[in-house]
TrEMBL record:
It comes from Vigna angularis var. angularis. This is ascorbate ferrireductase (transmembrane). The keyword Metal-binding applies. Its cofactor is heme b. The gene is Vigan.10G025000. The chain crosses the membrane at residues 12-33, 53-73, 85-103, 123-143, 155-179, 199-220. The keyword Cytoplasm does not apply. GO terms for cellular component: membrane. It is a multi-pass membrane protein.
């Protein structure tokens, strides 16, 4: 009995790629075209570089790459071992970007304590810590040949749940960061609520929410649709007509 990719899955993968591209474009526009928003009188040019790198690393490096690692099992051809290897490396690069992205916030004049006070910062630290633990567990249970099959089977549901939960937490953390930044700009710098920058940031938050929906739904959707199921559906439709 033949199998084909589910049309709904293909549509979700396409929408996830479009949303991911839109997120990358919007965060680049925000970070590069509105650099003055990341620069305060107390910051040096080196501090400005760290401030601009933070959203780029956390959104493009951490969120987009970790989302792509989730989708690898949905679209990448090849053996299961090859898919697991690509998944592992993409998650590893995303983890490196996340760690470096947090490190950029601890650099500069204000130091660690001054940058670790908000809900956004707390959620970010928890998210990257969970992600690191998830990566280590995934490596030990799904890549290391010495682990038993029974252990891998027991860990798999928790690995999938924690992976999707951590990804959703990363999206939520990014949303709180965007809200925090826009609130600061509007209250401290009198930036208009209808300014171009506010619209860019709001659009970025909206597309991030859409991206998470597409990625998570694609991850839990059936990968294949049997030809027999398609024929039965067609026969039922014809009979009903």
């Amino acid at each position: 009995m033949g199998t084909v990719y589910s049309p709904s899955l293909l549509a979700l993968l396409f929408l996830a790629r479009v949303a991911g591209l839109a997120v990358a474009v919007l965060v680049l526009i925000w970070a590069l075209a509105f650099k003055s928003s990341f620069l305060t009188p107390s910051l040096s040019q080196q501090d400005l570089l760290y401030a601009v790198l933070h959203p780029l690393l956390m959104v493009i490096g951490f969120i987009l790459l970790s989302g792509e690692a989730i989708l690898v099992h949905r679209w990448l051809p090849g053996s299961r071992g090859f898919k697991k290897l690509v998944h592992l490396w993409l998650q590893g690069v995303a983890l490196g970007c996340g760690i470096f992205g947090i490190w950029t916030r601890f650099q500069g004049k204000d130091g660690v304590v001054a940058n670790f006070f908000s809900l956004h910062s707390w959620m970010g630290l928890v998210c990257v810590s969970l992600f690191a633990a998830q990566w280590v567990i995934g490596f030990l249970n799904f890549w290391h040949r010495g682990e038993g099959r029974r252990v891998r089977i027991r860990v798999l549901p928790w690995h999938v749940f924690l992976g999707l939960y951590t990804y959703a937490l990363a999206i939520a953390t990014a949303e709180t960061g965007l809200l925090e930044k826009v609130t600061f700009l509007q209250t401290m710098r009198n930036v208009s609520k209808h300014s171009t920058e506010a619209m860019v940031v709001n659009a970025l938050g909206l597309v991030l929410a859409l991206l998470s929906a597409f990625v998570i739904l694609a991850a839990v959707s059936p990968k294949y649709q049997t030809i027999q199921t398609k024929l039965l559906y067609s026969d039922t439709t014809t009979f009903s007509s």
